[in-house]
From TrEMBL:
It comes from the Bacteria. Residues 14-30 have a biased composition (Basic and acidic residues). This is Cytochrome bc1 complex Rieske iron-sulfur subunit. The chain crosses the membrane at residues 57-78, 98-119, 168-187. It comes from Streptomyces camelliae. Its main location: membrane. The keyword tRNA-binding does not apply. InterPro entries: QcrA_N (IPR045603), Rieske_2Fe-2S (IPR017941), Rieske_2Fe-2S_sf (IPR036922), Rieske_Fe-S_prot (IPR014349).
């Protein structure tokens, strides 16, 4: 049914908008402005029962969106992450990912489809033409915008069609809950784990190559030894995480060559232990110049002076390598006297 078939008195009152030709061609404007075509009323404009049907469809879509969001949360809580299912034609996929994608997609689609159906069938579809104006808005224009806004709100039926309004607010309120639950999938917060290493008072220094605890006599002047905490084995599940923080460089210097007082206090008979993790962006340092006591990071050539608190003497690293305070236990093995006093690796962690 089109508006031509409807008796004139049943049609909604036309609003003040131009239809048909609005100007004729003349010398200045050789092309006539054809104006807007005649407005066609929709079935919902002239039949309240059709409008009600559309209203129910919109409400149904918003309600399905709410159910899909609840389904998303339920899937997240109920489906084990290692369960897989067969889905034709994709094959075997994670049941959890499939359910999350399906429910989240349905929730978003139904909100969008509901809004589109609402706009196409129930909101005013009267064609409007407006003049372009200067960018700065004079007070009268602002007043007009506000009036248009109020008119738009009225025409959308937001106040009148409470079923749509309530289900839409419900769908939009539940939707962000999906994001909250997704955050849970990132795993537990690291808390202070990134600020501490495995080193603790009494933890022996173990040679990374031989896997044997180190004695002072194992560390020769001029040699570079890499060490790890006793108990940290490659078979440990978190070996890579822990070694990335706890790896040590051990060198023996003549105590008289140590310029930094704290370094000397934290050493044992000239043996010093520094973090092997570069303070630039975390590469493992591995090059040692025994004559100068400099260590060099192979990534961007930051150079640290191990005889002077491992301060940076060249390159992009921002600060000295952290030193581990060491001593000897009752059996004569090198041991840590505590954890590092500052975060190892890039300076990022100092800002947290
Ligand atoms: S990571 Fe060592 S200098 Fe860049």
């Amino acid at each position: 049914m089109s508006s031509q078939d409807i008796p004139e008195e049943n049609l909604p009152a036309e609003q003040e908008h131009a239809h048909g030709a609005v100007s004729v061609a003349d010398e200045k404007n050789p092309f006539a402005d054809p104006g807007l075509p005649p407005h066609e009323h929709r079935i919902q404009d002239i039949d309240e029962r059709a409008a009600k049907r559309s209203e129910r469809v919109v409400a149904l879509l918003f309600t399905v969106s709410m159910l899909a969001t609840v389904g998303f949360i339920a899937s997240y809580l109920a489906i084990p992450h290692d369960k897989s299912i067969f889905v034709f034609p994709i094959g075997h996929i994670s049941a959890l990912n499939f359910a999350l994608g399906l429910t989240l997609g349905a929730a978003l689609f139904c909100i969008g489809a509901g809004a589109v159906h609402w706009a196409r069938t129930l909101m005013s579809d009267v064609e409007m033409a407006d003049e372009r104006h200067a960018i700065e808005a004079p007070p009268e224009l602002k007043a007009k915008v506000m009036a248009d806004f109020r008119q738009g709100a009225e025409e959308s039926g937001l106040g009148r069609r409470k079923l749509i309004r309530n289900t839409m607010f419900g769908a939009l309120t539940l939707m962000p809950l999906s994001a909250v639950f997704l955050l849970g999938g990132l795993g537990p917060a690291p808390k202070s784990k990134l600020r501490h290493t495995m080193w603790a008072k009494g933890k022996r220094l173990v040679n990374m190559n031989t896997n044997q605890p180190l004695r002072p006599e194992d560390v020769m002047v001029g040699s570079l030894t890499f060490a790890k905490p006793d108990g940290l084995e490659e078979t440990n599940e978190d070996f890579q995480n822990e070694i990335a923080k706890a790896a040590l460089m051990i060198v023996r210097l003549q105590p008289g060559n140590i310029k930094d007082k704290r370094e000397l206090d934290w050493s044992h008979e000239g043996i010093v232990a520094f973090s092997k993790i570069c303070t630039h962006v975390g590469c493992p340092i591995s090059l040692y110049e025994q004559q100068t006591h400099h260590v060099l990071c192979p990534c961007h050539q930051s150079t640290f002076d191990l005889s002077d608190g491992a301060r940076v003497i060249f390159g992009p690293a921002g600060h000295a390598l952290p030193q581990l305070r060491i001593g000897v236990d009752s059996d004569g093995y090198l041991q840590a006297l505590g954890d590092f006093e500052e975060p190892v690796g890039p300076a990022f962690w100092e800002r947290g």
